[in-house]
Amino acid sequence: MWISELCPQLAHHADELCVIRSMHTEGSAHGEALLRLHTGQANLVRPSVGAWISYGLGSENENLPAFVTISPPRGHGGVQNYGSAFLPAKHQGTAIGSAEIPIAQAVVSNLDNSRYSRTSQRRQLDLVQSLNRQHLRTLGFDSAVEGLIANYELAYRMQSEVPEVMDTDSESKATQRLYGIGDEPTDNFGRQCLLARKFAERGVRYIQVSTDYTWDHHKQVQEGSIKEAKKVDRPIAGLLHDLRQRGLLEDTLVLWGAEFGRTPMAENGDGRNHHPQAFTVWMAGGGVRGGMTHGATDEFGYAPVESPVHMHDLHATLLHLLGVDHKRLTYRYAGRDFRLTDVYGKVVREILS
Fold it and tell me: Would the pTM count as exceeding 0.85?
């Protein structure tokens, strides 16, 4: 398996990686391609992948949301990248911080209440919820009000568990070193990856970990790639090692990639442009075959020539690995049945273990 010298730590996990080298999608702009990555569509507001999984599978922990997004960027699709669209509001991703601030400083907004005790909060919430339910009976079915009621209850319960999950400094020194916490330039992304493990360990169904648009190397691609790879190589390898040693990797699917690739030809002398025609993602754990490479491009890396995998195929495969049939996971809205893959997508069975 070919792995760049920019990722020496990740290379130690080659036997766990399933590398797909024939990805392709539509949209040469960040916004369009990111929406296709996160929602399957770019021309209409659609539920995100995490929202679909929350809707289809629910949560394993009543004190935590089913879908968490860690340090999401605000631009290029913004909240749509983790939104619920027409699905009930409770399926929208809960954002932890943003890409613009260090994750060590991130808080869950309005989680703590210093004015009232938990008992007083419960009484206050019971009153508000009784009014909400009375309003719902008057309206009949209303997914927005139902989502509001569910989210109020979840927010109250989150107070008991989220502070402990967010405390990365309580982890052992060995674990912190594994993720590169306390060192630069890995501290911030290392904390994000450690949070992902902690949320997964507690039954959160779908977790996004994001970097900002720092890989957009229209100039100085060599210097930029070296700089950015140093931030993420050790934390990613640490996450895979930590999941495996805790017995979580076989039940946890890790998917790493971006919205598109980069052109094989130079731009601005030493840069690269956006290239949705061919790019690479990798998966690990969760039922995929490790130590394999699927698909191939032409000799220039311009287009797939062997086993092409479209973004819809990736989504279909992702849902399949989580035990969901992408053709049957539907939601009726505005007179038609919608699904993540629309009318497309096929499971890439060659990569299944």
Answer: yes
